[in-house]
Amino acid sequence: MRNAAIAHNVGVCTPNNAKIIKITELTHNTKLFEIQLEDEHSNNFFDYSPGQFVLITVFGVGEIPIGLTSTPIKRGSFELGIRKVGNVTNKIHQMNVGDIVGIRGPFGKGFPIEENKHKDLLYVCGGTGYFPIRSTFLYAIARREDYGKIMFLYGDRCPTDVLFPDENDDYKKREDILFHQSVDRDDDKCWEGNVGVVTTLFPNIAKEIDPVNTVVFVAGPAIMYRYVIIELEKLGIKNENIYLSLERKMKCGIGKCCHCGIGDKFACLDGPVFSLDQIRGLLEAL
Amino acid sequence: MLSKIISRQDLPKLIDALTNDFLVIAPTYDKKVPTFSEVESSSEVEFDILFNEKLPMLPPKKVFLPAKQTVFKYNLIKGVTDSCDEISDAVTHNKNVVIFGVSPCDVSGVGVLERIFRDNYSDDVFLRLHDKTTIISVNCLDHCYENCFCETMSSNDPKSGYDVMLTEISKSKLIAVPNSDKGKKILRDYPELFSQISEKDSEAYIDALNLKNKNFKTEFLVEGLASHVEDSFESEIWKEFTEKCLFCGSCTFVCPTCYCYTVKEIVSVDLKDGERQREWDSCYFPEFALVAGDHNFRETKEQRFRYRYLHKFVDLPRRYNFEGCVGCGRCVTYCPANIDVRDVLKKIIGVM
Predict the structure, then answer these.
(1) Which candidate in A126, A245, A277, B297 could, as Cys together with B289 as Cys, close a disulfide (CB 3.0–4.6 Å)?
(2) Domain assignment present for A168
(3) Same domain (yes/no): A209, A162
(4) Any CB–CB contact under 8 A between B320 and chain A?
């Protein structure tokens, strides 16, 4: 697993200035930001594991942890998918291409994707959980021959909240990926696919699962985890092969400020990705 | 021998000599409260705090992790302009720092913080100040007051973390034992204040250490404490203390090993420049685990009360091999609700 890889010549507590080079509007409240460090040399060193996060500073407003959305295979810049929910994310949404933000990281432990070559991969995500999952998913499909089956279950609240619809359509067409998608509600009757929470997608892949050879990566809200875990256990997948990304409040990202404590672990150092095995022994995790 | 003797009446001279070369922080009274503060001459130092065994209200952590501190400065458009190095050098007027009169439990406390801030990712803001500081400790030969339980937390005999240890070997003499390069340099640099050790002094030193050993008693056993605390996760004990607790955060602020902090952005009136400020935080505050969208990861008071104990007595021992408590008793002294950390622990262990 990689550690903070940017040369922190300014010290790990001070952000590196970085420039927003591209903004893609994903939904009414979600945007994808492509970011490049101002010091060009540092971009070559910016390496990360899928599932790791950075702390992004909007100068004058604050700093928040955001999971990396792009794949580390692509060098020179990285992407962060951000939904506007608080002060910092609201301000980021008002920013333009060329604006300067601060970046610290990458921090934390990501999904063990390199460690699980030749396994079948099952991705389960809900809502903005798609963002960190996308990083490891893009990694796996870029090295398709290294992995067995690749299955992807994605649920979101309603059709207008669906992230990366065009990419999703491409995946659905591919024969080497089993991509299934759902929305919780379809009030306007505009959705052609499955309606229901993400767990209603499990019957689609149940027959494809080889419980011994499958590794599961999950990201989404805590409530989703509880039900997804039940489904995964029904399929006979062992806890040690299930990885979940937990989110907590963070200030430092480096195990000093204590805001992200979960029982005897820190989300920023020991996580944010934990195996279900670890979570079972972790007080106050889910 | 590297250890030297200094007479008690020469201590003010030592302080005065040090103020020429260092920024000196020593025990003083601030509105009758014993406190560590910057001194310009020995006349400001209250030696009776040291020798009548009173602990300054705030531990020396406030030097490395001040209640408020600028981490870096920035321009809202251009980004970071001043890094922490320049800022912290300015704070100490480009001088090295001496903290005089640190008790052994506080030395242990600084050791805990140093390890935490150095490990995993080195926190340059903390270490920049820590690494330029020389700690002159004054040994304790007996429990300093009723709330002290340093022996229980095995913190009264730190093996490292101090640069010079002064131990009283008679009413008029102290032995100065250096414990680092910085400490040896202090004894070398002020030769007129230190004299050679006689055989009698060596014997007196051994006697003093034996007396110390005899005086300190363990109040309860901390062996296996981590699993006791973890096993008591659902216990009613937390409820009992939660009902008493005011969640004011005093215990966390006076604690030598509490290091939680939050950061705030301070922006100039013209909205052009700003700085990030690091500020003490407390896991007892409701906002501590509150995120955008109004979700609080520790919603109840009981969860917040319990988490402090989980962190100090489960997480830290497992991660670093020490408890997040040095037994200084400050949290007991300054708790407005009279909660005694020893009572909580004893109930958890099952000896009360």
Answers:
(1) B297
(2) yes
(3) yes
(4) no
Task: Answer yes or no: do A203 and A219 share one domain.
Answer: yes
Print the domain residue range for A184: 114-245
pLDDT recorded at residue A9: 63
Q: What is the predicted pLDDT for the residue at A247?
A: 86
Q: How far is CA A11 from CA A110, B68, B85, in A?
A: 22, 19, 9
**Bond preceding residue B317 cis, omega within 30 of 0:** no
Chain A: give the shortest CA distance to residue B283, in Å: 8
Looking at the structure, do residues A55 and A139 belong to the same domain, yes or no?
no
Give A11's contacts in chain B (Cβ within 8 Å): 83-85, 124-125
Question: How high is the pLDDT of residue A1?
Answer: 42
The DSSP output letter for B197 is: P
Complex-level ipTM: 0.85
What's the pTM?
A: 0.89
Q: Per the domain annotation, does A282 fall within a domain?
A: no
Q: State the average pLDDT for chain A.
A: 90
Q: Which residue of B has its CA nearest to A59?
A: B76
Which chain B residues contact residue A249 at CB under 8 A?
Answer: 288-291, 297
Q: Which two tokens stand for residue A228?
A: 């997804």
CATH label of the domain that carries residue A61: 2.40.30.10
Q: Check A100 against B292: CB less than 8 A apart.
A: no
Where chain A has pLDDT below 70, the residues are: 1-9
Return the amino acid letter for B14. Answer: L
Nearest residue in A to B273, CA atom: A60
Instruction: Provide the number of CB pairs (under 8 Å) joining chain A to chain B.
Output: 141
First to last CA, chain B: 48
Boundary (domain end) residue, out of A60, A78, A106: A106
Q: What DSSP state is assigned to residue B196?
A: P
| A11 belongs to a structural domain | no
Question: Are A101 and A183 members of one domain?
Answer: no
Q: How many domains in chain A?
A: 2
